[in-house]
């Protein structure tokens, strides 16, 4: 692969996903390249600036990363090559010696802020909230004693900062799904792997031909008849007419399987918009399995 883009700067949880993915694939030659936001990274992959990249797509506390879904649906033609699921531990990071009652501003990525919403209120009250492109950027921007950032232990260590409160997310069990994206026709999953890859999963996007009673039931019935397990279904606006939606559907199975091919064929006939994002393997890590621990 040689080069792999990720949501930077260094110290983000997306870098953690990228490093652990490469380690699991026994890939010691690829160089990681940081991008300042998800939009620029996705467009860099689409434009051929970088062969592939890893972006967050869903969190167990706050749901989908909408910017990732919207770019995949509306702006680019990219394929999902793999899924990496990691446990996420957020930390409240401050300059050395700063006490909680000194903090007047909290900086982080919108998803991290949302995952720590209750604890921000509990420990810091109605403090000012500042949103930036990544957790690592938040830590890098920490400049005064009345500020705190939410981010990884690695980012704190790299900036010689202190962790005021570890495990600052509202729920102890916090997981994020990341996806490896590339242009169509690029195969990044060949070769050896240190960790066994889970069974294939497929992601599609569709919009029904006509919005009418029972249409969603008809679409989902295609999976039920073949006893195919859905792992996710979510709607997003088509951006055309109020009340019109696209459906993002993830399910177990490979698009090359005979029964899955039949399902996809039937869904195409009932859809005005249809896209297969890819069939791919899944890497699911626990804290104990992480080759690089950033928490």
Main β-sheet: number of strands, strand sense, barrel status? 10 strands, mixed
Helix content: 25-40%
The CATH superfamily of the largest domain turns out to be: Periplasmic binding protein-like II
Low-confidence stretches: none
| CATH fold-level label of the largest domain | D-Maltodextrin-Binding Protein, domain 2
How are helices and strands ordered from N to C? EHEHEEHEEEHHEHEHEEEHEEHE
Kindly state the number of beta strands: 15
Mean pLDDT: 89
Walk me through what this model shows.
By secondary structure, the chain is of the alpha/beta class. The chain folds into 3 domains: 1-87 and 175-184, D-Maltodextrin-Binding Protein, domain 2 (3-Layer(aba) Sandwich), CATH 3.40.190.10; 91-165, Periplasmic binding protein-like II (D-Maltodextrin-Binding Protein, domain 2, 3-Layer(aba) Sandwich), CATH 3.40.190.10; 198-281, Alpha-Beta Plaits. It is 27% helix and 33% strand. The protein has 9 helices and 15 strands. The chain has helices spanning 13-24, 38-46, 66-74, 110-115, 117-124, 135-141, 153-158, 215-225, 258-269; strands at residues 3-7, 31-35, 52-59, 63-64, 79-87, 91-94, 105-108, 128-131, 147-151, 162-165, 175-182, 201-208, 230-237, 245-252, 271-284. Strands 1, 2, 3, 4, 5, 11, 12, 13, 14 and 15 form a 10-stranded mixed sheet that branches. The chain has a 5-stranded mixed sheet with strand order 8-7-9-6-10. Strand 3 and strand 4 (63-64) form a beta hairpin. The longest helix has 12 residues, at 13-24. It is globular and about 65 Å long. Pathway: Amino-acid biosynthesis; L-phenylalanine biosynthesis; phenylpyruvate from prephenate: step 1/1. Residues 3-183 form the Prephenate dehydratase domain. GO terms for molecular function: prephenate dehydratase activity. InterPro entries: ACT-like_dom_sf, ACT_dom, Chor_mutase/pphenate_deHydtase, Preph_deHydtase, Preph_deHydtase_CS. Keywords: Amino-acid biosynthesis, Aromatic amino acid biosynthesis, Lyase, Phenylalanine biosynthesis.
């Amino acid at each position: 692969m040689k080069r792999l883009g990720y949501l930077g700067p260094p110290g983000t949880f997306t870098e953690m996903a990228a490093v652990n993915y490469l380690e699991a694939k026994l890939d010691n030659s690829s160089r990681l390249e940081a991008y300042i936001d998800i939009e620029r990274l996705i467009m860099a992959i689409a434009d051929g600036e970088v062969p592939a990249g890893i972006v967050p797509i869903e969190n167990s506390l706050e749901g989908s990363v909408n910017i990732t879904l919207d770019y995949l649906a509306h702006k680019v033609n990219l394929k999902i090559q793999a899924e990496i699921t990691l446990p996420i531990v957020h930390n409240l990071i401050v300059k050395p010696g700063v006490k909680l009652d000194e903090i007047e501003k909290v900086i982080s990525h919108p998803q991290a802020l949302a995952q720590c919403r209750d604890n921000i209120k509990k420990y810091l009250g109605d403090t000012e909230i500042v949103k930036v492109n990544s957790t690592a950027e938040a830590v890098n921007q920490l400049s005064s004693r009345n500020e705190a950032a939410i981010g990884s232990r690695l980012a704190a260590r790299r900036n010689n900062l202190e962790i005021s409160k570890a495990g600052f997310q509202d729920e102890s069990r916090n997981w994020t799904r990341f996806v490896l994206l590339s242009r169509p026709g690029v195969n990044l999953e060949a070769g050896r792997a240190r960790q066994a890859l889970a069974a294939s999963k497929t992601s599609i996007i569709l919009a029904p031909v006509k919005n009418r009673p029972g249409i969603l039931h008809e679409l989902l019935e295609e999976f039920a008849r073949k006893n195919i397990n859905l792992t996710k279904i979510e709607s997003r606006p088509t951006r055309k007419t109020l009340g019109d939606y696209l459906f993002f559907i993830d399910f177990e199975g490979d698009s090359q399987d005979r029964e899955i091919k039949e399902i996809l064929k039937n869904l195409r006939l009932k859809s005005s918009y249809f896209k297969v994002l890819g069939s791919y393997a899944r890497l699911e890590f626990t804290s104990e399995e992480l080759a690089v621990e950033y928490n």
